[in-house]
């Protein structure tokens, strides 16, 4: 299987008043061409920072210490900003968390689509307009010709998200990074957006990196899953294998926290995820793990290793 994106041993952090604080620790995962890869974990675990590292959209205080991000056999970290701008939007598109703030309220949806198309597709005038309307139709926006002239405030949350996805399709993006694409939407619209992304993957062969905390979405839509905790990948496996043979205690905790029945009490992972400012020795999950081995888990960092042909985990219990 061909890898379209490979993140290799990425170490990234922030320069603060108290010195450098690491946020990502040897993060490694790959997105297979034509598949949906889910990056899963609690808020603040480093999922979005991983996405911003891929796109080289990190804040000024951030610094990548080591590692690489390879897209179609090309190192993105080695590119100059001008070269990176040619890839962003055109080859790799981002669907941000909040569609409400991702569109300029002063310009029509059509104008914003045309701007992206002219920038990345070298089309002008009616050709760009036709391409924009075609993209709106692809994401199932009704009356696309009329909607083309409307402003973002005239679109619902779900429609705004569709318009952003249309921008990715208009530029023929080969990889879509969907950062919590259903967070601000109700359950019915969530399903519509996820079905749309799934159809894009199947019909156009577009690869998708889905960043989410929702394991229910992962089980239904993703081909492969990487679980992240406090800046580290702790488990990686094909989705079916992951749910049938969950290995890492943190992954088990996430799965057990899913609601199972009307009257069944929810399971929780006790404690709180560590802050970037916390100094933690050993496994970063050890202080919340009920399987913690004293003088091992709290002093040594577990090696990330294969436990099956396509299943890896970082735990001393392996």
Give a short summary of the structure.
The chain contains ten helices and twelve strands. By secondary structure, the chain is α/β, with parallel strands linked by helices.
Description:
The protein has 318 residues and is an alpha/beta fold. The chain folds into two domains: 3-91 and 173-259 and 266-314, P-loop containing nucleotide triphosphate hydrolases (Rossmann fold, 3-Layer(aba) Sandwich), CATH 3.40.50.300; 104-172, no CATH class. 31% of the residues lie in helices and 26% in strands. The protein contains ten helices and twelve strands. It has helices spanning 47-55, 81-87, 109-121, 125-138, 144-147, 157-170, 187-204, 215-221, 239-244, 249-256; strands at 3-16, 19-32, 36-40, 62-71, 74-75, 92-95, 175-179, 207-212, 224-229, 232-238, 304-308, 311-314. The strands form two sheets. Strands 6-7-8-3-9-10-12-11 form an eight-stranded mixed sheet, sandwiched between helices. A hairpin with a 2-residue loop joins strand 1 (3-16) and strand 2. Helix 3 packs parallel to helix 6, helix 4 (125-138) crosses helix 6 and helix 6 packs parallel to helix 7. The protein is globular and about 70 Å long. It starts with a strand and ends with a strand. The model has no long low-confidence stretch (mean pLDDT 91).
Rg, Å, rounded:
21 Å
Helix content: 25-40%
- What's the number of helices? 10
What is the CA–CA distance across the termini?
27 Å
What is the C-level CATH assignment of the largest domain? Alpha Beta
Q: Which structural class matches the secondary elements?
A: alpha/beta
The count of domains is 2
Principal-axes geometry comes out as globular
């Amino acid at each position: 299987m061909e890898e379209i994106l490979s993140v290799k041993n990425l170490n990234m952090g922030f320069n603060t008043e108290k010195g450098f604080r690491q946020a990502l620790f040897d993060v490694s995962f790959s997105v297979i061409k034509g598949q949906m890869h889910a990056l899963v974990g609690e808020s603040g675990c480093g999922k979005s920072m991983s996405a911003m590292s891929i796109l080289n959209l990190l804040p000024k205080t951030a610094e990548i210490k080591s590692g690489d991000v390879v897209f179609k056999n090309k190192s993105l970290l080695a590119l100059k900003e001008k070269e990176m701008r040619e890839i962003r939007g055109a080859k790799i598109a981002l669907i941000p968390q909040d569609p409400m703030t991702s569109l300029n309220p002063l310009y029509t949806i059509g104008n914003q689509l045309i701007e992206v198309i002219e920038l990345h597709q070298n089309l002008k005038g009616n050709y760009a307009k036709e391409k924009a309307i075609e993209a709106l139709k692809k994401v199932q926006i009704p009356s696309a010709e009329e909607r083309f002239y409307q402003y973002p405030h005239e679109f619902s949350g779900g429609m705004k998200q569709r318009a952003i996805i249309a921008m990715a399709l208009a530029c023929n993006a080969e990889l879509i990074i969907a950062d919590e694409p259903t967070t601000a939407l109700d359950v019915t619209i969530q399903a519509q957006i996820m079905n749309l992304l799934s159809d894009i993957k199947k019909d156009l062969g577009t690869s998708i990196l889905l960043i989410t905390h929702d394991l229910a979405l992962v089980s239904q839509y993703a081909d492969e899953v990487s679980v992240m905790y406090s800046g580290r990948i702790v488990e990686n496996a094909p989705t079916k294998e992951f749910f049938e043979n969950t290995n890492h205690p943190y992954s088990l905790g996430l799965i057990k926290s899913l609601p199972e029945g009307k009257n069944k009490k929810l399971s929780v992972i006790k404690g709180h995820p560590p802050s970037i400012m916390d100094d933690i020795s050993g496994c970063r999950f050890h202080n919340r793990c009920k399987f913690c081995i004293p003088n091992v888990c709290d002093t040594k960092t577990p090696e990330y290793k294969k436990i099956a042909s396509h299943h890896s985990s970082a735990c001393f219990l392996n």
